[in-house]
Automatic annotation (TrEMBL):
Entry-linked InterPro entries: TRPV, WD40/YVTN_repeat-like_dom_sf
Record has Transmembrane helix as a keyword: yes
UniProt keyword terms in alphabetical order: Coiled coil, Membrane, Receptor, Repeat, Transmembrane, Transmembrane helix
Coiled coil: 996-1030
GO MF annotations in UniProt: monoatomic ion channel activity
Domain of life assignment: Eukaryota
Gene Ontology CC, one term: plasma membrane
Originating organism: Gigaspora margarita
Entry protein name: Transient receptor potential cation channel subfamily a member 1-like
Listed transmembrane segments: 495-514, 641-663, 669-688, 700-723, 743-763, 770-791, 876-899
Gene Ontology biological-process annotations: calcium ion import across plasma membrane
Amino acid sequence: MTSNSNNSHVEISIEKVPDKNKNKKISEIVCSPNLKHVCALHENNDISLWSIVGLEKLLTNIKPIHIDNIRTNEKIDAISDDKYDLIRKIFAISDDKQVSISLDRIDPYNFKIFDFETEEEIKLTFSDWQKEIDFLSFIDNGSIIMINVKYYRAYIFSSKKKDNMSWVCKSMIELQYFKKIYITPKGKLIIFNDTIYEITVWDIKNLSVKTRVLIEWRHILNHVEISDNEELLVICTENKKSKETNLYVFSTETGINLSTLNTKFFAIDRFHLIASSKGERLLYRSIQKSVKKYSLMDPYNLKNPINANKLFEHKPIQEQYIIKSDKIIYTNDGKVFIEQLWSLEINDESVKLIANKLNSSIKKQLDILPSLNINGQNYIVHCEVLENDDFITITRIGVIIWIYKLSGIKMHYYWNDCNCRLEKFVFEKINLNEDLFKDWVPGRILPFSNDKRIRLLGKSCIDKFVKENNFLISKISLLSIIFENFNELSENHPAFMTSALSLIGFVVPSTIVIPNSISLHLSKYGRYYHLYSTSFIDVLNSILRDRWISFQNSHPLFRDKIVKPIVDFYSISHNSIILAIPLPNLVSYPKKCDFWGELLKPSFNPFTFSYKLETINEEFYRYLNGEALIKFKWNTYGRKYYLTIWAIYTTFLLSFTIAVTYYKIISQTSLFILLNITIYLGFLHLLFELRQFIFSPPTYISSVWNLFDLGAYLLPMISSIIWLQNNVMPTEMATFSTLLLEIKFLLFFRAIEFTGAYFSTIIKVAQRAFSFLVILGFIVFAFAHSLHLLLRPAGNVSLDYPSYSTDPNDPWNLATTYNTIDHNGIIEENSSLIDPPTANTNMFMMMGSAISAVYLMLTGDSTSISYWDLNNNPSLLILTSIFSFVATIYLMNLFIGLLNNEIIETKTRESFLNLRAEILEEIELLYMLPHQRRKENWFPFVIFYECNTVKLREYIRDIIIGKWTGYKEPYISKALIEALQLPEDQPSFKQISNIIKNLEVDNGEIKKDVKALSNKIERVIKELNTLKTNRE
């Protein structure tokens, strides 16, 4: 649909008097992305355009325009609630003097874009017949970004002509959900998801996430600000209940919380990041007892604020002002002014930091380091001020970072190259101020290689996350330092990793218990989204959803009597509590993606690499976090892929088994089709096997299951090809092909929870019992070899012609003979009939059949030795007796006992989760395309899940009473105890046992003391009696 000026209700008139708005109060101002123009909205619905020319303080008013039906401060009802009141923001201006304004109409649109130069309306065409926009912004490349809240959809328009009057919708993007949204001048979207309290910065050019951060769940989001270079993200939150305000500074590159300001003494009204190119500063306005105060702080530590009221001392600023690119744009008496707010200079000649003081015109300069000269070469190669105002000097001896404190200049970091590219230098031999190098630590910023330092670093990250026996969700990004290196730390420091897992086993973001929850135990909580281009299906779904909602609203009887009872009938509610899986980036893949390279060899993340870490895996899946993670992955994408793979394999199986079973009754055409389907689907499966081999050849070859899969795919293909060539079914090959195919089909049930526990037990026990079976196999081989040497014929024997030998091991002599009986009942020995021997008559003739015979003896079948008289063959008697006792009686019963112990010791639940995790790893690496592995809703930063309070309480109680079987008992926070209403500091069974033992020890010592005291008393009494006797 196109917006035309003909059906517009907007009246645009050029004011003849240029200073009409001189004394009209300005209610709102906006500036263009590159700070070329400023547009002001006056209280009488006039819009004035001001141009920024040179360094002039007072901006030039180009001309005013009057519009009758402008809407301001309009609340967006679609997403506003008792916590958040969202206001529609459409008023904006471009660098080309195009202005957008919100209008009091929805036909054709609730907004209008017009050009100040030509006074014409901009023509727009929406692909989904959209008429209402809630957020609009011009970005620095000239495009327009619009947001519709009702459908959570973004529109990107670009000009298709040079006159900028005709625009086309370049793309539509499904945002899926948000509570708050901000559009940056560079075209990034900052989206707040209040279901999991996550803020993401999206790049809409390639639909990828630049950074993801979390805030505390007990707070609400007030405002978000991003630096001009988009490297720092500042977030202000507030706790209405405790009147606590938090200010967070995050790095957009790493997502790590760099600093936090927590205060209850004042409220932060507005804040801005200034001096982005010369060392960032945070300027904020606080309100304390109705007094407004401006302050400056270093955003990297948020300490020691400096009074910045002097910045605004000589500026008659009214309420409306903008701070952008170190400039302040403000209004006064209907006019718009612009001034420089901050300046910072570096004098490279003298290596001095020169900064303007806020309260005077005097410049303060600080000597950082003298320009030394070593052997005719400049000591200092380059110097620069960092974003946090630290000073970096690149010298001939290394890289030094200085920090300025009130006590003086201190060395903060030092790094020197180990090879010969930098000259060797000894600090102690240089005649400099001794205090200058007081805190010098060589190699301070190099990666830790010492085990103790690694543990200290990890402990420091966890300590910042755990404060006062509770967890700070906003600090969760610090844990990425640990879990992004999950594989290396698990291999080299397993004790540290298991200890870390125990500390974050039960992370409670909120103590609020969800009543009447209909979610299953350990199911995901919140919404996880990934931006993608809008399709026709998305548009159709939004239309159908609107129709369905309007139908229910127009038919309340149908909604209340039919829809609601059906929903209530199938809803089983319970109380649940929210837990977090604090493993940032554990399941995420690298942002950079080489499509063709990853098709050949996929990149992995810590989760897909974890199959090599059996000990850590077993420990991880003991926790609810491990089970919840597998359940999230399985429900999100795993089962869809798995059922699709299963369906393709089932087609492969049926095409071959139908062909070999019913080839006599089906037509040749049908047979030809079935065999070709088998061949083509077999090639498809082999392609994925090839990818798996390329990904890790040693792992593929060492796995018996991979070789089994290879046989299940190859044999039916080869059988089908031979069949088509010879027009005759290869019976033996088809037999084994069918066997492998059907066993492979059965193995698909290992991922289903109903049967997966038994499959995991079978596989786990078989793996552990494999070594015992190898020993048993050697024993069978040894006895088979001995019996082969003892019972083989002395000469060459043919089963077709009698040998007439006297060899007792000759099959003809072992064969059954039949003698005739005359009418008197006498056996005639001169004539007899012989039953011709077979290969089973003497199975010990050949080594292969001898092994089969001994294996049958192991199962209790002694038919193979029944042809010999054991009384006349003592050697055979001895061998069979030893084998019967050692193998059949002792080893087989031992094997049964070992299997029973292994079954008991096998942790069925953990084994099943580990088995399903291996399947998910295979799906991610082999069956997903590279862009699918970057979907944020499939591989989120942090996962939250709901836990049934009854089951969780039982789980925690078992841990408290000492039933935990893991490496270390999980840490239970005060927040979890409060949410579950558990008694604090309840002693465990082990603690009670220790107390009893200590009491027993104490009682024994008391008895000894009492006995010793009794002996002393008796001696004293005796001595007294002796003295009494002597006196008498």
